[in-house]
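Re: your question from the hallway

Yes, I did run it. Sequences:
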Amino acid sequence: MSATILIWSITVAQLFLLAAMACAVARMVLGPRAQDRVLGFDALYVCAMLLLLTFGIRTGTTIYFEAALVISLLGFVSTVALAKFLMRGEVIE
Amino acid sequence: MTHAADLPAWAALPTAFFLLLGSGLTLLGAIGLLRFGSFYERVHAPTLGTTWGAGGILIASMICFTVLQSRPALHEILIAAFVIVTTPVSLMLLARAALYRDRTENNGGVPAFEAESEGTDGEASPKSSDQKQTKGQ
Amino acid sequence: MSRLLPYPLLATSLLVMWILLNGLSAGHLVLGAIIGIAASWAMTALEPAKPRLRRWGLIPGLFVTVMADVLRSNIAVASIVLRGRRGQRTSGFVTIPLELRDPTGLAVLACIITSTPGTAWVEYRSGTGVLLLHVLDLADEQEWIDIIKGRYERPLMEIFE
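Structure:
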C-alpha cells in the first residue's frame, strides 16, 4: 500500500517537474529579450536538478545526487557569466 | 524501484507529501514564469521553485534515504545550502543586467534612480540583434 | 590561533562539507581539516573584509522569521499565479532609504529579499543608501517599506553593527 503511494507520488512529481521544464524551455524560446531567456535557463537547470533528485529517490541510489550537485554548480556559474555578459557585453573584464 | 516496498508507511507518506508539495510549487513557479507580463514580474517566479520547491523535494529525499539506510543522510543539506546561497545572487545579477540594458536603451517603465515613477511594463521594442549589438563594441 | 586559523568559520564549514560528501572516517577528517586550513590561508591572500558579528543570539530568530515569511509569500505568489490575469494586481518599483551600511549585512539582506518570492532586490546605491526594490503585488508602498525596515533591517543592524 505504502509502496504504491510512493511510486505514484514520485511519478506525479516527475510529471510536474517535466511540465515545469517545458514551461522554462518555452520561456527560453519565446524570449522576448535576452534576459528572459537567461531567466528561463536558470529555472530550467533548477528543475533538471530536482528531477534528478526524484530519480534518486525512485531508484534508491546516491549517484543521481552527485549529478544534481554538479548541475547546480555549473548552472549557477553559467547564469552568472551570462548575466555579466548581458550587463557589459564582455565576460572577462 | 524495488526498494520502495522496503519503506514503511510512516516514512512513505511524508515522503510522498513533500515530493508533491515541492514539485507542485516548482510547477507553479514555472507557470508564473510563462504567464507574467514583464521581465521584472518574471524574476519573482523561479524563487518559488528554489525555496520551498527545492526544499520539499530535498526533505523528501532526506526522509527516504535516512529510513532506507537507517543512518542520517545529510547530503541534501549541501544542495539546499548551495541553492539558498546561489539563487539570490544569480537573480540579483539578472535584474541588475536587465535594468542596465533598459536604461541604456531608454525603454519606458524603468525608474531612473531617484524618480518615484511606477512602471510595470519594461517590455522592449523588438530589437532583434540585442546580443550582437553589445558584442560588436 | 589566529595565524593558524584566520577564518575559523570557513575552515569548519569546508570540513563539514568534506565529511558530508565523503562519509565520516579518520582519514577524511584529517584530509578535510588540511583542506579547510589551506583554503583559509588562501583566503588571507584575498584579504576580504572581516564581518563582525555583534549578537549571535538574534540569528536563529531572524532565520525562523525569514523561513515563515518565505512560506507565506510562497502561498501568496502561488495564488497570484493560479488567479492569472483576472485578479487585479499592480506590480511596481519601491524605493527604500536604508540605514544599514555594513557590507555583510547588506549582502544578507539582499539574499533574504531576493529569495522571498514576491520581492526582488534590483539596485542599491551605496552613496545615498537607497534601495530599489521590485514588488510583485504592490498594494501599499508604505507597508512594504515598513516590512523591510522593521522585520529585516533592524535585526540585521543589531547583529552586524
